[in-house]
Description:
Blueprint: E1 5-9, E2 14-16, E3 20-35, E4 38-54, E5 63-72, E6 75-87, E7 100-101, H1 103-111, E8 118-125, E9 130-134, E10 140-141, H2 147-156, H3 168-176, H4 180-191, H5 194-207, E11 245-246, H6 248-262, H7 267-271, H8 275-285, E12 301-309, E13 312-321, E14 324-333, H9 340-356
Parallel strand pairs: 2-6, 7-9
Antiparallel strand pairs: 1-3, 3-4, 3-5, 5-6, 8-9, 8-14, 10-11, 12-13, 13-14
Helix pairs in contact: 2-4, 2-5, 3-4, 4-5, 6-8
Amino acid sequence: MAVAFTMDAPRPFEANPGLISFHSSTPVDRLEVRIDGRVFRIVDLPAPTRRSTVGPIGLPSRDVTVTVTGFSGSQRVGSQTASDVLGLPRASMSIRPIGRTSVRGQLRMRRLPRPAEAVAGWAVDLSAGTGASYNAGARFTAASTAKLPILIALLINRDEDIVGSEVWGSVQAMIRRSSNDAANDVLTALGGSTASGGAITTAIAHRLGAVQTEEAAGYLADNYDRRLRPPVLVDNQPDVPCCKVTTAHDLGILMQSIVEAAAGRGRARRLGLTGRDARVALWLLAHTDSPGLIAPWTRFITAHKIGDVNRAWHDVAAVFTLHGPLIVVAMTDSAGGVDRSASAQFGRGVLEIALEDLPAPAVTGPDR
Length: 368
């Protein structure tokens, strides 16, 4: 017997700003949305329909269980529930092209105390289309930030939902616990071997605009467009050992591509990263074991990936504020080992620039 009402979004293990999608065997004209069993919102549809996507209506910024019930007039058509949904603010899908560099943000970025021999910062307000950067074109040891493009490449290359698949356990371990063994398993699932998987990952990263990111080995030609905003310059290039390398710009672009795909747009979306894929990626990145360099300094939901080896302490994050998403990257590198406390303060400084110097339009109307 066919299910009368099916909720296509939200689904379990995804971050969702209240984007609700359904299909129904009977036309529906009203939706009741419950959060953790309590009525949260009633959505009246413009006309009875068997299939529609509404929102985002905004969800509480925490892990929730969402139940959506469809009605035809006063008759209940059907209901479905999704647990393990990470709620995001409604403005999380408010995205503009980055077209302006903040002069004040640039000045503050250059004046931040530098806790290591080399540092880099990247901050973008996606709702305002404004950014600031420092040393964003310098190549650093990627460490475990290299697992971010691996995740993107895997999701782009799979047709079926990753949740519950044969690689779901390895993907969770790779992102949430930053397991190297799990990363090798995922690379092998992607390309048949770690080398082939790394080559696929590098190629996809380049197509997304992360042209200095290398998953395998070696250095790349300096192919950045110097007109990029915020600037992608090299102020202090660390001595980077083989083999995995990346830049603050590249990490920011990769995280931005996930946020854009969650909103149904951007390069990654055109390459095949679906909205569901991107929302699952954000759920994983928001449930990592390490607090990193950004999340400890903000009350907002933060999806991030750290890179942590003796000489390097990095973090790339998407911070979901009430006015829209921020992309924040902090990278530190010292051959003799980094000062973790000082690196954390550097991350805090880059975040404060993103919050204070890259203003976005104020949110109007109710939100959660």
